[in-house]
């Protein structure tokens, strides 16, 4: 009786994987998805739609939302393996790939994920500094007029952003600050909403008229034929970057407060994915299409820092402040897994080294005790310096965002989910479903390649006219 009582208590308190009983529903999971998706990618959507035009811009936004929804459904079924309802849980995306596809694919997934994480920290350094510059410019324009020379270099602001990240990176348990994602979510909605509101206000201005078109920028008027081609490819990468979130589906399902085990998690997660992506696509359409209507073919690369909006200057400042706060935290969220994997490897490789393992407790006035480790101090500092230097060398917002979107979209959003589903569901080779999945994967590979090429060409073109501070 005692044994039965103990088991019943455990089944009430704990899930089948030993974690505290999950209590969330499709509503909480939907909120996590919206939080994960809406980020700095919204800033480039007006520019992307301007390159593509009303028809292709709207089509690509809807197409990527449908592809992301499909692959999210596939990942929801792969959360448990081998059976999608009663199988063993996969708590992370990489664990899912390892258990279903095996070691080689697991290593390729790790390479793709960590490349994406490094790229995002570089991109966040760049975007954060651009918003700092925008605040300075906004105040300059307000004081001196919209035609004043308010050009300000963002190299200094990148160094400031990097210096702040060096300090934050030394906090050993920064990844445990759960409130960070809440702040990031509020900031994301804040600056996206400000951008939408300013776009609506600009559209409503009396006498406001800008040039828009079904196919976007006009060849021979706004740009050359080759520029149109490369910018179109780059714009596709920008939209792909905005939708790159599938890799956190497993983490959302496994989270202690996300989805309870009954009804089955895969069914609940599919409902959550549909709701979350529907909300996100609506938000993205507002940012991209209203932004294009507000700016027309002259839409800036970043619709809060490109100064299609000058007034009210304080609202533009608040929007950019929200971006900075969001990216300061987001940098750490993306950098912590990189820090962790290198430090874990070092501790296993040299377990007897005091340089690797010994911690010194340093008392900092008004802050408290700082647990300092020499390897952690040097390695994390060098990493932040590296990302800052790369951002300084390549300070091109749309090209970098497009390249990040291209790098992450095919492998993480399409290839691994489709391959895992085919194996998990034991889909017969050359069946209609198998052929359909392979065609989808091939199509998305082509999209990724053209987006990457367009972004690389954009970087090369920008480098020819860029001046560095060293």
Description of the molecule:
InterPro entries: AA_transpt_TM. It is found in: Cell membrane; Endomembrane system. Keywords: Amino-acid transport, Auxin signaling pathway, Cell membrane, Membrane, Symport, Transmembrane, Transmembrane helix, Transport. By secondary structure, the protein is mainly α. The protein has one domain: Hydantoin permease, CATH 1.10.4160. Helix content is 70%, strand content 3%. It is built from 15 helices and 4 strands. It has a two-stranded antiparallel sheet with strand order 1-2. Strands 3-4 form a two-stranded antiparallel sheet. Helix 3 packs parallel to helix 14 (397-424) and helix 8 crosses helix 14 (397-424). The longest helix is centred in the N-terminal third of the chain and has 42 residues, at 103-144. It starts with a helix and ends in a 5-residue tail after the last helix. 42% of the residues are buried.
Concise structural overview:
The chain has 470 residues and is mainly α. It has helices at residues 2-13, 26-37, 45-78, 93-101, 103-144, 155-169, 179-204, 225-242, 249-254, 265-295, 313-349, 354-357, 374-393, 397-424, 432-465, and strands at 80-81, 88-89, 359-364, 368-373. A hairpin with a 6-residue loop joins β1 and β2.
């Amino acid at each position: 009786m005692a044994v039965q009582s103990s088991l019943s208590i455990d089944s009430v308190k704990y899930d089948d994987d030993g974690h505290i009983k999950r209590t969330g529903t499709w509503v909480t999971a939907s909120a996590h998805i919206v939080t994960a998706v809406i980020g700095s990618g919204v800033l480039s959507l007006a520019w992307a739609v301007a390159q593509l035009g009303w028809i292709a811009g709207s089509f690509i936004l809807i197409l990527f939302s449908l592809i992301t929804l499909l692959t999210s459904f596939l990942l929801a079924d792969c959360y448990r393996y081998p059976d999608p309802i009663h199988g063993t849980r996969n708590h992370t995306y990489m664990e899912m790939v390892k258990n279903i596809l095996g070691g080689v694919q697991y290593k390729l997934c790790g390479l793709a994920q960590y490349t994406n994480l490094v790229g995002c920290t570089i991109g966040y350094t760049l975007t954060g500094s651009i918003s700092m510059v925008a605040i300075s410019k906004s105040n300059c324009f307000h004081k001196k007029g919209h035609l004043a020379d308010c050009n300000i270099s963002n190299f200094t602001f990148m160094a400031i952003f990097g210096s702040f990240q060096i300090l934050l990176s030394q906090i050993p348990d920064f990844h445990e600050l759960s409130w960070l994602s809440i702040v990031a979510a509020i900031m994301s909605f804040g600056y996206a909403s400000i951008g939408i509101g300013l776009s609506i206000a600009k559209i409503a201005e009396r006498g406001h008229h800008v040039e828009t078109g079904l196919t976007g920028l006009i060849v021979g008027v706004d740009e050359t034929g080759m520029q149109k081609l490369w910018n179109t490819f780059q714009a596709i990468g920008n939209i792909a970057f905005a939708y790159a979130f599938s890799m956190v589906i497993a983490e959302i399902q496994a989270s202690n407060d996300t989805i309870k085990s009954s009804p089955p998690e895969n069914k609940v997660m599919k409902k959550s994915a549909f709701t979350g992506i529907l909300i996100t696509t609506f938000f993205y359409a507002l940012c991209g299409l209203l932004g294009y209507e507000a700016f027309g073919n002259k839409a800036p690369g970043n619709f809060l820092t490109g100064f299609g909006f000058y007034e009210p200057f304080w609202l533009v400042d608040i929007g950019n402040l929200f971006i900075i706060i969001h990216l300061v935290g987001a940098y750490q969220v993306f950098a912590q897994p990189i820090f962790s994997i290198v430090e874990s490897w070092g501790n296993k490789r040299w377990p007897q080294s005091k340089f690797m393992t010994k911690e010194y407790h340093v008392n900092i006035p008004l802050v408290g005790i700082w647990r300092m480790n020499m390897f952690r101090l040097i390695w994390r500092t060098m990493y932040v310096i590296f990302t800052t230097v790369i951002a300084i060398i390549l300070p091109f917002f749309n090209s970098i965002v497009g390249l990040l979107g291209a790098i992450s979209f095919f492998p993480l959003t399409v290839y691994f989910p489709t391959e895992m589903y085919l194996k998990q569901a034991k889909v017969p080779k050359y069946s209609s479903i198998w052929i359909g999945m392979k065609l989808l994967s091939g199509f998305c590979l082509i999209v990724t390649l053209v987006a990457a090429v367009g972004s690389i060409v954009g970087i090369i073109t920008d480098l020819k006219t860029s001046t560095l501070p060293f």
